[in-house]
Amino acid sequence: MASVGQGHGRLARSFRVLPSLGAGSVLASLLACASAAEAADCTPPLAQLVLVKGSVELVRQGTSRLTAADTDAGLCAGDTVVVHQRAQAALLLSNATVVRLDQGTTVTLSPPAGARPALLNVVSGAIYVISR
User: Fold this and answer.
1) Which of 38, 53, 129 minimizes the C-alpha distance to 85?
2) How far is CA 55 from the centre of its chain?
3) What HEC string does the chain produce?
């Protein structure tokens, strides 16, 4: 999942060019992009973040930009959750399964296919599954 870290670096480099545009227009553009990227595009979401402790970030499908994760954020197919060191997160899947993500874990949601439910691709780290 090296592209997540590299994407974050590209974003940081692109901000160095923006000051020539004017602070007002840059701030307005950033706020518009942030609110659009944080909203889940699918209805209903495949999973929901129910616990965020420490530094947890999301990469929405179709982007390479890391955004801070919030509790109750809906997750769609292709979304990636990155749990940094000394952090934790928990997902509530649509079938009432709770998946706890340990520090240093990166997971991506895959879309459901036919009768198969959505899959959770563990890129790195450890998960704990609690089903009822």
Assistant:
1) 53
2) 12
3) CHHHHHHHHHHHHHHCCHHHHCHHHHHHHHHHHHHHHHCCCCCCCCEEEEEEECCEEEECCCCCCEEECCCCCEECCCCEEEECCCCEEEEEECCCCEEEECCCEEEEEECCECCECCEEEEEECCEEEECC
Q: Using a pLDDT cut of 70, give the percent of the chain over it.
A: 70
Tokens 């399964």 belong to 97
Name the residue among 105, 109, 108, 70 with its Cα closest to residue 88. Answer: 105
Kindly calculate the radius of gyration of the chain based on its CA atoms and give it in whole angstroms: 16
> 22 Cβ partners below 8 Å, 6+ apart?
none
Q: 89 and 13 in contact (C-beta within 8 Å)?
A: no
Are the beta carbons of 90 and 49 closer than 8 angstroms? yes
Residue 40: predicted pLDDT: 64
For residue range 34-91, what is the model confidence (pLDDT) as tens digits? 433 445 678 889 999 999 999 999 999 999 999 999 999 999 999 999 999 999 999 9
**Model's pTM, two decimal places?**
0.69
